[in-house]
Protein backbone atom coordinates (compact mmCIF):
# COMPACT_ATOMS: atom_id res chain seq x y z
CA UNK A 1 0.00 0.00 0.00
CA UNK A 2 1.05 3.64 -0.47
CA UNK A 3 1.09 6.15 2.34
CA UNK A 4 1.98 6.56 6.02
CA UNK A 5 0.71 4.41 8.89
CA UNK A 6 1.66 4.81 12.56
CA UNK A 7 0.89 1.82 14.80
CA UNK A 8 0.74 2.43 18.56
CA UNK A 9 1.17 -0.44 20.99
CA UNK A 10 -0.39 1.79 23.63
CA UNK A 11 -0.20 5.41 24.75
CA UNK A 12 -1.48 8.49 22.99
CA UNK A 13 -4.49 10.29 24.43
CA UNK A 14 -6.08 6.89 25.20
CA UNK A 15 -3.62 6.31 28.06
CA UNK A 16 -2.99 9.89 29.17
CA UNK A 17 -4.54 11.38 32.30
CA UNK A 18 -4.73 14.88 30.80
CA UNK A 19 -4.91 14.01 27.09
CA UNK A 20 -1.36 15.11 26.31
CA UNK A 21 0.88 12.79 24.29
CA UNK A 22 4.17 13.24 22.45
CA UNK A 23 3.11 10.53 19.99
CA UNK A 24 -0.10 12.39 19.21
CA UNK A 25 1.92 15.59 18.77
CA UNK A 26 4.10 13.72 16.28
CA UNK A 27 1.05 12.48 14.40
CA UNK A 28 -0.12 16.05 13.92
CA UNK A 29 3.34 17.06 12.71
CA UNK A 30 3.34 14.26 10.15
CA UNK A 31 0.29 15.77 8.47
CA UNK A 32 2.21 18.95 7.61
CA UNK A 33 -0.94 21.03 8.22
CA UNK A 34 -1.24 23.98 10.62
CA UNK A 35 -4.75 23.02 11.71
CA UNK A 36 -5.17 19.47 10.42
CA UNK A 37 -8.46 17.68 9.93
CA UNK A 38 -8.38 14.73 12.33
CA UNK A 39 -11.03 12.00 12.23
CA UNK A 40 -11.37 9.57 15.12
CA UNK A 41 -12.67 6.08 14.26
CA UNK A 42 -13.93 4.39 17.48
CA UNK A 43 -15.42 1.30 15.81
CA UNK A 44 -13.47 -1.17 17.97
CA UNK A 45 -15.05 0.25 21.13
CA UNK A 46 -18.55 0.30 19.65
CA UNK A 47 -18.35 4.09 19.29
CA UNK A 48 -17.97 4.49 23.05
CA UNK A 49 -19.13 7.98 24.05
CA UNK A 50 -16.50 8.43 26.77
CA UNK A 51 -13.72 7.51 24.37
CA UNK A 52 -15.00 10.03 21.83
CA UNK A 53 -15.13 12.72 24.51
CA UNK A 54 -11.51 12.04 25.47
CA UNK A 55 -10.46 12.36 21.82
CA UNK A 56 -12.28 15.66 21.42
CA UNK A 57 -10.68 17.01 24.60
CA UNK A 58 -7.16 15.92 23.57
CA UNK A 59 -7.28 17.56 20.13
CA UNK A 60 -9.39 20.62 20.90
CA UNK A 61 -7.88 23.86 19.66
CA UNK A 62 -5.18 22.24 17.55
CA UNK A 63 -7.15 20.24 15.02
CA UNK A 64 -10.45 20.22 13.16
CA UNK A 65 -11.94 17.14 14.78
CA UNK A 66 -14.61 14.75 13.58
CA UNK A 67 -15.78 11.23 14.40
CA UNK A 68 -16.63 8.45 11.97
CA UNK A 69 -19.57 6.65 13.59
CA UNK A 70 -20.48 3.37 11.92
CA UNK A 71 -22.85 2.33 14.74
CA UNK A 72 -24.95 5.47 14.27
CA UNK A 73 -25.04 6.07 18.03
CA UNK A 74 -24.76 9.78 17.29
CA UNK A 75 -25.01 10.76 13.64
CA UNK A 76 -24.04 8.25 10.96
CA UNK A 77 -21.11 9.50 8.89
CA UNK A 78 -20.45 8.35 5.34
CA UNK A 79 -17.20 6.28 5.23
CA UNK A 80 -16.03 8.51 2.37
CA UNK A 81 -15.53 11.20 5.02
CA UNK A 82 -11.99 9.84 5.55
CA UNK A 83 -11.01 10.98 2.04
CA UNK A 84 -11.02 14.61 3.19
CA UNK A 85 -8.86 14.15 6.33
CA UNK A 86 -5.22 14.87 7.15
CA UNK A 87 -5.16 12.21 9.88
CA UNK A 88 -7.41 9.22 10.59
CA UNK A 89 -6.92 7.95 14.16
CA UNK A 90 -8.31 4.49 14.98
CA UNK A 91 -9.14 3.68 18.59
CA UNK A 92 -8.74 0.47 20.58
CA UNK A 93 -11.18 -2.26 21.53
CA UNK A 94 -12.13 -5.41 19.65
CA UNK A 95 -9.97 -6.10 16.59
CA UNK A 96 -12.37 -8.76 15.29
CA UNK A 97 -15.41 -6.49 15.57
CA UNK A 98 -13.55 -3.60 13.96
CA UNK A 99 -12.62 -5.68 10.91
CA UNK A 100 -16.12 -7.10 10.52
CA UNK A 101 -17.86 -3.71 10.70
CA UNK A 102 -15.30 -1.96 8.49
CA UNK A 103 -15.69 -4.56 5.76
CA UNK A 104 -19.47 -4.38 5.94
CA UNK A 105 -19.30 -0.62 5.36
CA UNK A 106 -16.52 -0.89 2.73
CA UNK A 107 -14.32 1.41 4.83
CA UNK A 108 -10.96 -0.26 3.95
CA UNK A 109 -11.33 0.79 0.31
CA UNK A 110 -11.79 4.42 1.30
CA UNK A 111 -8.94 4.32 3.84
CA UNK A 112 -6.61 2.94 1.19
CA UNK A 113 -7.56 5.72 -1.20
CA UNK A 114 -7.11 8.33 1.54
CA UNK A 115 -3.64 7.04 2.41
CA UNK A 116 -2.60 7.09 -1.23
CA UNK A 117 -3.72 10.73 -1.34
CA UNK A 118 -1.60 11.74 1.68
CA UNK A 119 -3.83 11.08 4.70
CA UNK A 120 -1.85 9.74 7.67
CA UNK A 121 -3.42 6.60 9.15
CA UNK A 122 -2.79 5.78 12.82
CA UNK A 123 -4.21 3.51 15.48
CA UNK A 124 -3.74 2.11 18.95
CA UNK A 125 -4.15 -1.52 20.11
CA UNK A 126 -6.95 -2.86 17.87
CA UNK A 127 -6.17 0.20 15.77
CA UNK A 128 -2.63 -1.15 15.48
CA UNK A 129 -3.62 -4.75 14.81
CA UNK A 130 -6.00 -4.08 11.94
CA UNK A 131 -3.37 -3.03 9.38
CA UNK A 132 -1.30 -6.23 9.71
CA UNK A 133 -1.83 -9.75 8.36
CA UNK A 134 -2.41 -11.20 11.84
CA UNK A 135 -2.38 -10.20 15.49
CA UNK A 136 -2.58 -11.05 19.18
CA UNK A 137 -6.03 -10.06 20.40
CA UNK A 138 -8.46 -10.40 23.30
CA UNK A 139 -11.44 -9.89 20.99
CA UNK A 140 -12.88 -13.23 22.09
CA UNK A 141 -12.13 -12.93 25.81
CA UNK A 142 -8.84 -14.65 26.51
CA UNK A 143 -5.84 -13.69 24.39
CA UNK A 144 -5.76 -15.60 21.11
CA UNK A 145 -3.99 -15.46 17.75
CA UNK A 146 -6.08 -13.90 14.99
CA UNK A 147 -5.08 -14.82 11.45
CA UNK A 148 -7.04 -11.96 9.99
CA UNK A 149 -6.27 -8.36 9.14
CA UNK A 150 -6.16 -5.95 6.24
CA UNK A 151 -2.66 -7.16 5.35
CA UNK A 152 -1.38 -3.72 4.42
CA UNK A 153 1.58 -4.22 6.76
CA UNK A 154 3.61 -7.45 6.84
CA UNK A 155 3.41 -10.20 9.45
CA UNK A 156 1.81 -9.98 12.86
CA UNK A 157 1.17 -7.30 15.47
CA UNK A 158 1.12 -7.43 19.26
CA UNK A 159 0.26 -4.27 21.25
CA UNK A 160 0.69 -3.74 25.02
CA UNK A 161 3.63 -6.14 24.89
CA UNK A 162 4.92 -5.59 28.42
CA UNK A 163 1.92 -3.63 29.70
CA UNK A 164 -0.36 -6.67 29.95
CA UNK A 165 0.93 -9.69 31.84
CA UNK A 166 0.13 -12.49 29.37
CA UNK A 167 1.02 -10.76 26.11
CA UNK A 168 4.71 -11.64 25.95
CA UNK A 169 4.52 -15.32 26.92
CA UNK A 170 1.57 -16.05 24.67
CA UNK A 171 3.13 -14.33 21.67
CA UNK A 172 6.39 -16.27 22.02
CA UNK A 173 4.38 -19.49 22.14
CA UNK A 174 2.29 -18.67 19.07
CA UNK A 175 5.17 -17.47 16.93
CA UNK A 176 7.29 -20.46 17.94
CA UNK A 177 4.47 -22.84 16.99
CA UNK A 178 3.74 -21.06 13.73
CA UNK A 179 0.27 -19.97 14.88
CA UNK A 180 1.28 -16.38 14.19
CA UNK A 181 3.81 -15.16 11.62
CA UNK A 182 6.89 -13.14 12.57
CA UNK A 183 5.48 -10.29 14.63
CA UNK A 184 6.16 -6.71 15.69
CA UNK A 185 5.63 -6.46 19.45
CA UNK A 186 5.14 -2.91 20.72
CA UNK A 187 4.87 -1.83 24.33
CA UNK A 188 2.62 0.92 25.67
CA UNK A 189 3.76 4.49 24.84
CA UNK A 190 5.71 3.33 21.77
CA UNK A 191 4.84 3.11 18.08
CA UNK A 192 6.08 2.10 14.65
CA UNK A 193 6.11 4.40 11.64
CA UNK A 194 5.53 2.88 8.19
CA UNK A 195 5.68 4.36 4.69
CA UNK A 196 4.48 2.58 1.59
CA UNK A 197 4.28 -0.68 3.54
CA UNK A 198 7.90 -0.47 4.71
CA UNK A 199 9.09 -0.01 8.31
CA UNK A 200 10.72 3.40 8.84
CA UNK A 201 11.37 3.81 12.58
CA UNK A 202 10.22 3.06 16.10
CA UNK A 203 9.33 6.00 18.34
CA UNK A 204 8.48 6.33 22.03
CA UNK A 205 7.04 9.04 24.24
CA UNK A 206 8.50 7.53 27.43
CA UNK A 207 11.78 5.70 28.15
CA UNK A 208 11.62 2.06 29.13
CA UNK A 209 8.91 0.99 26.70
CA UNK A 210 10.63 -1.25 24.15
CA UNK A 211 9.73 -2.54 20.71
CA UNK A 212 10.67 -6.01 19.49
CA UNK A 213 10.69 -8.07 16.32
CA UNK A 214 9.66 -11.60 17.30
CA UNK A 215 10.64 -14.24 14.72
CA UNK A 216 10.40 -18.01 14.50
CA UNK A 217 13.66 -19.94 14.52
CA UNK A 218 13.16 -23.67 14.37
CA UNK A 219 10.47 -24.57 16.88
CA UNK A 220 10.87 -21.50 19.08
CA UNK A 221 10.53 -17.73 18.92
CA UNK A 222 13.30 -15.19 19.43
CA UNK A 223 13.08 -11.48 20.27
CA UNK A 224 15.24 -8.78 18.71
CA UNK A 225 14.85 -5.35 20.26
CA UNK A 226 14.35 -2.49 17.82
CA UNK A 227 15.97 0.83 18.63
CA UNK A 228 13.44 3.55 19.46
CA UNK A 229 13.69 7.31 19.06
CA UNK A 230 12.56 9.25 22.13
CA UNK A 231 10.28 12.05 20.99
CA UNK A 232 10.95 15.55 22.25
CA UNK A 233 14.71 15.12 22.67
Short structural summary:
With about 230 residues, the chain is an alpha/beta fold. The chain has helices at about 20-30, 50-60, 95-105, 105-115, 125-130, 165-175; strands at about 5-10, 35-40, 65, 85-90, 120-125, 130-135, 145, 155-160, 185, 190-195, 200-205, 210-215, 220-225, 230.
Q: What does this protein look like?
A:
The chain has helices at residues 22-31, 49-59, 95-104, 107-116, 126-129, 167-177, and strands at residues 4-8, 37-41, 64-67, 87-90, 120-124, 132-137, 144-146, 153-158, 183-186, 190-195, 198-204, 211-217, 220-226, 228-230. It has 233 residues and is of the alpha/beta class. Strand 10 (190-195) and strand 11 (198-204) form a beta hairpin. The model has no long low-confidence stretch (mean pLDDT 96).
What's the layout of helices and strands?
Layout: E1 4-8, H1 22-31, E2 37-41, H2 49-59, E3 64-67, E4 87-90, H3 95-104, H4 107-116, E5 120-124, H5 126-129, E6 132-137, E7 144-146, E8 153-158, H6 167-177, E9 183-186, E10 190-195, E11 198-204, E12 211-217, E13 220-226, E14 228-230
Parallel strand pairs: 1-5, 2-3, 2-4, 4-5, 6-8, 8-9, 11-14
Antiparallel strand pairs: 1-10, 6-7, 9-12, 10-11, 12-13
Amino acid sequence: MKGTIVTLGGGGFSMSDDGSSAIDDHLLQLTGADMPKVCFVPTASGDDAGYIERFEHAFAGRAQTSVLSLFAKTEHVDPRHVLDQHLVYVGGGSTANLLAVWRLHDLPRHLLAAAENGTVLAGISAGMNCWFEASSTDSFGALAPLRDGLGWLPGGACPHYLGESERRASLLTWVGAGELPDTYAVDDHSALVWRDGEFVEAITESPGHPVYRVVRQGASAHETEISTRLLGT
